[in-house]
Specification:
With 236 residues, the protein is mostly beta strands. The chain has one domain. Helix content is 9%, strand content 64%. The protein contains one helix and eleven strands. It has an eight-stranded antiparallel β-barrel. Strand 2 and strand 3 form a beta hairpin. It is elongated. The relative contact order is 0.22.
């Protein structure tokens, strides 16, 4: 998907650059957006004992809502095509799951999605409507903590991982009077690749010292997002 997006971007720029520059149609848009989203995923945690045998497998599916702020910048090649980049500085945090381990210490597990970045192409049509397609990248930080003092082999530190995905969306942009400012309303669907994180112990490397391998597999990562953005366009 990322390669396809890059190729389309290059073709678009080459096709529009000469005529657009002659007509002074190149412009840039910046904006800040408020987002409200519903995310869903399926998670499976596999815990192995010191002898590498599977001790417990816990699998759950769920959805959660989250709000966050994002910032965008776009290069507009004429009136019909825009190349954009959107960054979310806020962490998107899943609900916390609680459980008791084998020594009755309460363990909490959650995940943060950090540095959500979207590179996209936006196709504008007369009347203010548009459609977009994009490539998504984000870092996943799986966090585990214990409410009581842990003994050897009862706690894990999971590796941070990254994942990619795709986004499609539609929206409407309305200019605010005769100014360069506009209000934008958008809905989008995002799908991310499956991710796996572990405590760094190999599947056959369990011992009393490291407590065995713990692994989290997350699949069916997807989200529906509603956006309201305030934008300003330079060069119009």
């Amino acid at each position: 998907m990322k390669k396809i997006l890059t190729i389309i971007s290059m073709v678009t720029l080459v096709s529009f650059s000469s005529n657009a520059l002659e007509r002074s149609d190149i412009s840039a848009t910046i904006g800040v957006a408020a987002n409200s989203a519903v995310y869903g995923a399926t998670g499976k945690e596999t815990n192995r004992a010191e002898d590498n045998s599977i001790k417990t497998i816990k699998k759950e599916s769920g959805v959660f809502t989250e709000t966050h702020t994002s910032f965008l910048i776009e290069l507009n090649a004429g009136d019909f095509v825009s190349l954009g980049f959107e960054h979310t500085p806020d962490s998107i945090t899943t609900p916390t799951d609680e459980r008791l381990n084998r020594v009755n210490n309460k363990t909490t597990v959650s995940a943060d999605f950090n540095d959500l970045n979207i590179a996209y192409i936006k196709f504008n049509v007369p009347g203010g409507f548009y459609a977009k397609i994009g490539h998504v990248e984000t870092d996943v930080d799986v966090k585990e903590s214990m409410a009581a003092a842990a003994t050897a082999g009862t706690s894990s530190t999971y590796n941070n991982v990254s994942t990619n995905g795709t986004l499609v969306g539609v929206g409407y942009s309305k200019a605010l009077g005769d100014t360069a400012m506009a209000i934008r309303v958008e809905g989008s669907y995002m799908e991310l690749d499956d991710v796996t994180s572990s405590n760094g112990v190999s599947p056959t490397g369990g011992s009393i010292a490291n407590g065995g391998r713990n692994q989290v597999d997350v699949s069916h990562l997807e989200g529906l997002n509603g956006k309201v953005a305030l934008t300003y366009t330079f060069g119009k």
